[in-house]
Amino acid sequence: MSTPPLASDLAPLGIVAGAGTLPFEVAEAVRATGRPVYILGIEGFASDAIKAWPHGMFRLGTIAAPIRLLRDAKCTDLVLTGRVERPNLTNLRVDGKAITTLPKILAVMTRGGDDTMLSGLIDLIEDEGFRVVGIPQIAPALVAGTARIGAREPSKTDLADMDIGFQALKHMGPLDIGQAVVVIDQRIVAVEAAEGTDAMVRRVVDLRAVGRVRGKPGTGVLVKAPKPDQDLRIDMPVIGPETARAVSDAGLAGIGIEADGVLIAGREALEKEIGDSGLFLVGRAKA
Amino acid sequence: MSTPPLASDLAPLGIVAGAGTLPFEVAEAVRATGRPVYILGIEGFASDAIKAWPHGMFRLGTIAAPIRLLRDAKCTDLVLTGRVERPNLTNLRVDGKAITTLPKILAVMTRGGDDTMLSGLIDLIEDEGFRVVGIPQIAPALVAGTARIGAREPSKTDLADMDIGFQALKHMGPLDIGQAVVVIDQRIVAVEAAEGTDAMVRRVVDLRAVGRVRGKPGTGVLVKAPKPDQDLRIDMPVIGPETARAVSDAGLAGIGIEADGVLIAGREALEKEIGDSGLFLVGRAKA
Fold this sequence. Notes:
homodimer; Cytidine Deaminase, domain 2; 2 domains; 5-stranded parallel beta sheet
């Protein structure tokens, strides 16, 4: 967050858009600073809302076409946003340009966790002369800070659960798995891997139902943070109103996030959900 | 496994029995060695099959009554088997004896992960003059060794997935969470916490369906091991036929376990399931 916003740079920001509303929240936040945007949607992922913006579309696996679109739009800075499921290689269609870099692409896509895949992707893009920037730099308003959301104050037990969660995430960082855990009564009851945060939290509903998780309703915390050495230009953790709803359904007390390390998608709806459900969302500075 | 079997000791072995068939498999294995058994069932958990054996019942939270039953049956060695969900303290009824040790019991039951709870339980039992022994000592036939089950041989990729799984479990040991992970294409896609192994494996079925896990069906491994410093007298990891069925449904290639660290419940049915599904189960010596 030490880099100043780039709003004064009037070249359009290129927004490579996967699924969800986040790409458009980023676009609005950037446009509000006076900088134009160009959204490059990924076919099969980007929402139709893209049509309201200057945009182009490309297919995963192609390289020449999206590069031409970004150059025609005069973009040099790019931001990568929105969800993209791991590509299915058997359905992947590659263009001529991609074929020359295919060994590298395959190496990136077929082995290792998300970290390997995504940092390889950044290298590929920057090899083409673009600069990949992070959402914290260009739309800091979308990043959760230390200010609490919700009227409820975390209890001592909640804070102890958060401690355990943050420590666990830090410890698990090298394993390149998820970015979130649920802690209830000082016990880690769910660990996120490929299922995603909301699905992991929903699991706790079932665990309570079958008695595998005790602890009174209204106890326990979802803890979410980037991996310890994560490049925040890619795959930055995101929470949204659905996350808050899952946390409420799971009978937890609230959400602890690492300040400046987690994006909020749909802030207004998230704040309403947290208020209505009597939860808290607190940010803790990175240790 | 260096301690010799205790079959020559003709005092009956006390088997404290939670849910499932494992207590009776242990009882049969021990009786086959010529040693009598006495099964002490936990109310609400032990199956009705207990009626075919010399037995008594007790309620979680009581201490005087089960101790009297075990002494009347002339047991000094005990083994703890079968599943017991974390007790719900609000429903717990405690007897006079328990009240004198209540602070200790509460400390054991209300804080920390399973490890803390269970090793505290052993201390409580041994304070009363009993000796808690492990299933590997008294029924070694129930423990999975290094011999492969199933005709299929693990591929190079399967072995690489197993490596990653064993390393991850070792690394996560201090977090006192689950004892199993699923690894597909060198990526950890599911981590067990409170949900249990079979539920975790079943999650991979859904992850494949929604495209969150790629990798051809027939790739990936369930890896299961005790925690690095686990006391094998309590909460020893168990796999059974349902585990193998879940692994098959999840489209994995097989199961890797730490040799001498994992129990097999229902071996005959498990072997049949592995054979019918074309899976493998391989044991790897502890690193």
